[in-house]
């Protein structure tokens, strides 16, 4: 092999390796298990994204951030994709086909009850970030009149504050709430610190269908093709089953 041939081979190896490992920076919230379990670097949505891009020219780089920052960094070009987006939430992004359905509920401790959204106007309410945009204008108009309404990034603290009586109502996705409830209770079902038998669930909101958002149309097209294949061959449902639930489990408690 002559000198020129060796140089060509070296260049092909260098550029080939680069193309095979093109980074795809995915921003995810660090507080939504079982969808994202950051300390284990896994979860339903992470597994779906990784499975979709397995065998592609892209190497996923998961970036854990507060939800608000994921949106901002995607728009600034610092991320290539983010999860859990509804149409209208981003000005310039390519949305995938619907990926997952969330069931947002209101949780209280008995005897506090929530029959209508107006009941939230006088309670201490803790919700997930961007709840105003996601849960509709009726909800946002009501909570805008409540000075004790807050939106927080870390949901585990919301569940604990509710059980300790430090807030009156928590608004969370159903699987996320029951995941954290199980984590807090652990194996000691006799632990009297938390009144688990007083937890009440109130269904005020319709299901929310979420998409993944991509900065480039090609990434979105790849993901959509693979998502369709995963649903057709059963891999989609097997990922949910690995976390003790199904894609249609609207009223079932999730296992940790």
UniProtKB/TrEMBL annotation:
Q: Which UniProt keywords apply?
A: Signal
Note whether Signal occurs among the keywords. Answer: yes
Ranges for domain Solute-binding protein family 3/N-terminal: 23-247
Question: Which InterPro entries did the record assign?
Answer: Solute-binding_3/MltF_N
In its keyword annotation, does this UniProt entry include Signal? yes
What is the similarity comment for this entry? Answer: Belongs to the bacterial solute-binding protein 3 family.
**What is the protein name given in its UniProt record?**
Transporter substrate-binding domain-containing protein
This protein's species is Aeromonas caviae
């Amino acid at each position: 092999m002559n000198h020129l041939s060796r140089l060509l081979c070296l260049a092909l190896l260098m550029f080939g390796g680069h193309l095979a490992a093109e980074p795809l920076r995915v921003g995810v919230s660090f507080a939504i298990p079982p969808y994202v379990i950051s300390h284990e670097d896994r979860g339903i949505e992470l597994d779906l994204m990784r499975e979709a891009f397995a065998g592609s020219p892209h190497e996923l780089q998961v970036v854990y951030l507060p939800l608000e920052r994921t949106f901002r960094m995607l728009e600034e070009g610092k991320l290539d994709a983010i999860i859990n987006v509804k149409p209208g939430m981003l000005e310039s992004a390519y949305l995938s086909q619907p990926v997952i359905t969330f069931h947002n509920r209101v949780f209280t401790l008995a005897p506090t009850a929530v029959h209508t959204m107006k009941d939230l106007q006088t309670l201490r309410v803790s919700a997930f970030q961007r709840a105003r945009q996601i849960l509709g204008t009726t909800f946002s108009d009501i909570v805008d009149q409540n000075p004790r309404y807050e939106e927080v990034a870390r949901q585990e603290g919301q569940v604990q504050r509710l059980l300790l009586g430090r807030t009156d109502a928590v608004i969370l996705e159903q699987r996320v709430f029951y995941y954290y409830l199980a984590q807090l209770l652990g194996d000691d079902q006799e632990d009297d610190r938390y009144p688990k038998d007083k937890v009440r669930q109130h269904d005020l909101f319709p299901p929310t269908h979420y998409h993944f958002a991509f900065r480039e149309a090609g990434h979105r097209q790849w993901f959509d093709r693979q998502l369709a294949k995963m649903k057709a061959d059963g891999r989609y449902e097997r990922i949910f089953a690995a976390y003790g639930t199904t894609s249609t489990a609207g009223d079932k408690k999730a296992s940790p």
